[in-house]
């Protein structure tokens, strides 16, 4: 039997969910509306209350094991997602049944792993019962959707990979293997893609233990499978490392390394190792090369991968800042916005060629980097306000105006960083009062960028 035929026998679900180019459906006519997908048994109607608590709002996604709904938790006043599984409810939670994903998620706890907040059973419209899982609502979508818009900077990918590898190391330490690490299972918490990405690895429904609980095919997604899985061998912790390596490579290139039909994608990794772009920094490329080695024994464990990727992101040539530094600056910017009632805020850190903008959360799409002389063009030691940027001839063509900023105020941040400022923004003309400026001064005084913080400060300007 050929390897291609073996793959087809081993992965029937994957073949159905990953059509190749020769299986693509013909394009729909312009005057035809696509038919809605057939309603699945696990799709709940809006308004349905699950677990006597969670009110279903609608369908977020339909996956291979169930339907994911958006929902609202009236007890804690928060949005959540409720995953209703297709398979019938199971009583024995130690078996790899429909609720296995919840069991795995409850076994380990890490910021990079999606936790299960609640679980139970729900009665479907046909009278049968199935399991449901309640999880955090991640506002940033998934990595697959993000990469469809643009690739990541290499340092963003390295920092993201370090966090995910830490989570996988904890999972592996508990004797578990994820088996389906892919961009669609990396859920983004940070909405603004220019900030450092905060993400969680989700979907533990295909995870297995160190000793398999039941015989059967090694499930997963073909495009991210390791060579030994393609050959029909059992997945190990190094299989997850390989898959994560392909995810990070796709993150910086913007395309899958092994595209095509199931056969083409599966066989390609047996013939060659992934191609690494020549412009990647040598340290980062070296880690990716080790993660995607053809044989499992040449791949480092996830714990080592996490250490090396973190060193790439924060060492010389990397631009990711220490968490404490960035969080301190952004938290202070958020406080400044709240005190002044502004819709956005940022810390401006100028250098010889421009200004770095560490923006606080807000709907204004403030640029991360301002080139040239920076802004505002006032004395760096003075507080300033601009009531209407559109009416100011000095800044009327500035990138901040294009981002929707119409009014702003700023004060200098004490320390040895000339020109460093704390700013607040408005999306409409506004006069910032003297009290607002005094509030800014009070927050900026807590941000002293003195010599004692020089090392962190210099690396915070990513």
UniProtKB/TrEMBL annotation:
<keyword id="KW-0808">Transferase</keyword>
<feature type="domain" description="Protein kinase">
    <location>
        <begin position="54"/>
        <end position="311"/>
    </location>
</feature>
<dbReference type="InterPro" id="IPR011009">
    <property type="entry name" value="Kinase-like_dom_sf"/>
</dbReference>
<dbReference type="InterPro" id="IPR003018">
    <property type="entry name" value="GAF"/>
</dbReference>
<protein>
    <recommendedName>
        <fullName>non-specific serine/threonine protein kinase</fullName>
        <ecNumber>2.7.11.1</ecNumber>
    </recommendedName>
</protein>
<keyword id="KW-0723">Serine/threonine-protein kinase</keyword>
<dbReference type="Pfam" id="PF00069">
    <property type="entry name" value="Pkinase"/>
</dbReference>
<keyword id="KW-0547">Nucleotide-binding</keyword>
<dbReference type="Pfam" id="PF01590">
    <property type="entry name" value="GAF"/>
</dbReference>
<keyword id="KW-0418">Kinase</keyword>
<dbReference type="InterPro" id="IPR000719">
    <property type="entry name" value="Prot_kinase_dom"/>
</dbReference>
<dbReference type="InterPro" id="IPR008271">
    <property type="entry name" value="Ser/Thr_kinase_AS"/>
</dbReference>
<dbReference type="InterPro" id="IPR029016">
    <property type="entry name" value="GAF-like_dom_sf"/>
</dbReference>
<dbReference type="GO" id="GO:0004674">
    <property type="term" value="F:protein serine/threonine kinase activity"/>
</dbReference>
<dbReference type="GO" id="GO:0005524">
    <property type="term" value="F:ATP binding"/>
</dbReference>
<keyword id="KW-0067">ATP-binding</keyword>
<feature type="region of interest" description="Disordered">
    <location>
        <begin position="12"/>
        <end position="44"/>
    </location>
</feature>
